[in-house]
Design brief:
Blueprint (H helix, E strand, L loop, with lengths): L1 E3 L4 H13 L4 E5 L19 E5 L5 H11 L3 E4 L6 H6 L1 H25 L2 H6 L1 E7 L23 H20 L3 E6 L1 E3 L8 H10 L4 E4 L5 E6 H14 L5 E4 L4 E3 H15 L6 H5 L9 E4 L14 H6 L8 H14 L1 H7 L19
Parallel strand pairs: 1-2, 1-4, 2-3, 4-5, 5-6, 6-10, 7-9, 8-12
Antiparallel strand pairs: 9-11
Length: 362
């Protein structure tokens, strides 16, 4: 099994699951950009079925060498630039990695599949991990299904939508046994501190402002990362080639609700009165750090996934309630400050991104 982007947030969690619940040899292929770090795989690097190869999915020669050496039975593609704010500032890298990189993987997989024996082709799978953001934005009602038309509204979601279409096309044109999963917002251990939940937690711990875009009313459907990884593994093992599966957590909350809930849990673990950084700023409560800022350009108002197809066809359901998942996440970030400090790039200090100002992606 090749897992691209396996040193990133969701990929690293999936690698642990695959090593624990399958007999597969897991080959992680990762460029190790700012959001991918081998520290996220430190506990499995000595596993006898773990292999790491550094490389870029958009590098044709590197991808061809990878397939020639390891001849995978399956490919799970997590590799992506994924932060919407960064895509607003520097869209080119998103197109290169998310779209062209997926194309290079598909071409290598197509070549191997075409040359394989009938038995090898029968068991071969290419699973592409995508996002609910390709569907665009919802009004106050309704949920995304697998047949919802695509309507991406950011450079990030457009680059992922293009990749999804390529994966579908390679199944219908070349007979490549592909699968696509579209997930709602993930949270949990090993998430880079630019995303809402780790950014909120780490800023609160450090007594820094908690930026809230617009009115804080944008709605996301939250899914604990371990539950998402379980759904991906189910799709890989039981999914119908050529099909797609939505994976959602039944966890709709506004951004403001998420932040308030996190601060409530943080207060239980690290009371504001015991937080020296908060006291130094003259604040008596975490809530006083909340700061409303200019909204993200083109900010989608609401996402919500209907996972009923995955629940019926894959026999999958998320196992963590939102409270259980959030509580575990708060505790993990409190217990792993060394990881948080080590993975943050020197060019990123939790500042605001996504205002349309051109900047390089580190």
């Amino acid at each position: 099994m090749i897992v691209t982007g396996g040193a990133g947030f969701i990929g690293a969690n999936f690698v642990r699951l695959a090593l624990a619940e399958t007999e597969a040899r897991v080959v992680v292929f990762d460029k190790l950009t700012y959001a991918g770090n081998l520290l996220s795989l430190a506990d499995v690097q000595s596993h006898p079925r773990f292999v790491f190869v550094r490389g870029d999915i958009a590098d044709r020669d590197a991808v061809r060498r990878l397939f020639a050496e390891h001849r995978p039975r399956s490919i799970v593609n997590f590799a992506a630039e994924s932060h919407v704010d960064r895509s607003i500032d520097a869209p080119g890298e998103f197109l290169r990695t998310n779209t062209h990189g997926t194309f290079e993987l598909l071409e290598a997989a197509r070549a191997q599949h075409a040359a394989a024996s009938a038995r090898e082709r029968e068991h071969f799978r290419f699973l592409h991990v995508s996002t609910d953001e390709v569907y665009g934005t919802l009004g106050p009602t309704g949920r995304f299904t697998e047949t919802t038309p695509y309507a991406p509204n950011s450079p990030y979601s457009a680059s992922k939508a293009a990749a999804d279409h390529l994966v579908r096309a390679y199944h219908h044109t070349y007979g490549l046994p592909t699968l696509v999963t579209n997930c709602s917002n993930n949270y949990g251990p090993f998430q880079f501190p630019e995303k809402l939940i780790p950014l909120t937690l780490l800023n609160a711990i450090d007594g820094r402002d908690l930026p809230i875009y617009g009115d804080g009313g944008n709605v996301r459907d939250w899914l604990f990362v371990e539950d998402h990884c379980d759904g991906i593994l189910r799709a890989l093992e039981e999914g119908q080639p050529g099909d797609k599966y939505n994976l959602g957590g039944h966890g709709e909350r506004t951004n403001l609700q998420v932040i308030d809930f996190l601060l409530e849990l943080l207060e239980q673990e690290l009371p504001a009165r015991d937080n020296a950084a908060l006291r130094a700023r003259g604040c008596g409560a975490y809530g006083s750090l909340k700061t409303f800022v200019t909204d993200r350009p083109g900010h989608d108002r609401r996402y919500a996934i209907d996972p009923s197809k995955s629940e019926s066809d894959l026999r999958w359901r998320p196992r963590h309630t939102l409270e259980e998942g959030f509580r575990r996440t708060v505790r993990w970030y409190l217990d792993n400050r060394d990881w948080c400090e080590a993975v943050q790039s020197g060019t990123y200090q939790r500042e605001r991104l996504g205002l349309g100002e051109s900047r390089p992606v580190p």
